[in-house]
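Support reply, case 0932

Customer input (verbatim):
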Amino acid sequence: MPGISARGLSLEERRRLAVNLTRVLTLYRSILDAYIIEFFTDNLWNTLPCSWQEALDRLNPPQLATQLLGMPAEGEVVRYGSVWPLTLLALKSTASALAFTRTPGFQTPSEFLENPSQSSRLMPLFRKHVRPKKQHEIRRLGELVKKLSDLTGCTQVVDVGSGQGHLSRFMSLGLGLLVKSIEGDQRLVERARRLDQELLQTLEKEKKRSAQVAHTGFHHPPHHVVRWVDPTALCEELLLPLETPPQGGSRLLLTGLHACGDLSVALLRHFSCCPDVAALASVGCCYMKLSDPGGYPLSHWVAGLPGYELPYRLREGACHALEEYAERLQKAGPGLRTHCYRAALETVIRCAQPDLCRPGVQGIPRVHELKIEEYVQQGLQRVGLDPQLPLNLAALQAYQAQEHRVVAFFSLALLLAPLVETLILLDRLLYLQEQGFHAELLPLFSPELSPRNLVLVATKTPLGPVFSILESEDS
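Our regenerated output:
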């Protein structure tokens, strides 16, 4: 999906985009509101126009990825085998036109061409204990923070929600930044400190053997603080400088790698309210955990629009991995049947206990190897019901025969999900602009590796043309 770039949009254009998003989301709210596990209990297929049903019924999983989601396989030419209804084509075009692009300005990560589990662009010292996804994220965000810090004259970086400290460790010991790490979980902080010491000991050994390591000039490890950040109040610890610059007056840069729910909102508020905070680089996630109200909407503009509301179901849907599901569709493997099986299980649960709706079912292993009745029996046991309940095998097999429709409906909802994320992030941009600040969104990570890949970059003063430096990939 190509999408629209947030870069270069005027305030008026961003406001108009918010208007269009709320209108479209209101128009297709029934699709977004639906729970796929209620596909059979709520007869979701028949909520679609008959012409859509006819068009979608003809598509196999790879065609759903290519034609509906707009994600063809490499080298594939998109061909439509039938004429689609104009309303379905309009939905596809609108979803593509109004969503922020998630395609970064670099090739799909060349850093993993030689070894899929080791980034060739991250020193081995910083790859230890770090999965490929996180390697990619800490390198890309760390390098952006370094550039942003240099451009804004910041004296200290504050990494909020730092977890095990992988990003902080790379920024401080790899890029030479002065970093404070704030994390609320004592166990994660203790783990981060152990990893710091392990890395420092390795560095001392490496310095004696490698001129390259000695040349990088590793200095201070990150300073770890155990502290929960209240999104509704300012955190004084977050704002305290580690060192007082010789010229006086510290300038802070706040960052958060996938700051969960309200934590990303807390970063915005600290940036807005605190004169010492000069810049912000935040990647949000877990939109369903945003307080309602409080976490969304933030801007006066979005709050004044009809249809601005984004209930839990819509925000949860915005967190799905579109690229990952498109890849699964292209492979057309048996793993796609999970949603169909779960929806069939829901019908049995409702018959056995009508007041038990959408219970959580702990992961059932190797679903693709199970018969549908075996899955239902295991599912009943996991929700506390008798797994030996008599089952209507004919009905279950009839549900299984509609697996392609379940997949098609879920793909349709997934097509709209980026519009929800776009509205949430657009609201944050407008919130900052309403206060006179300068804010942009950049697709920073490869979406195949990291689905929540848009970083919000904000400064108190305009960066002008030099902003483009942040978009470039370091050599």
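We compared this against your earlier run and they match. Two observations from our side: The beta strands are 156-160, 179-183, 223-226, 252-260, 277-285, 438-443, 454-459. The chain has a mean pLDDT of 90. Please reopen the case if you see a mismatch on your end.
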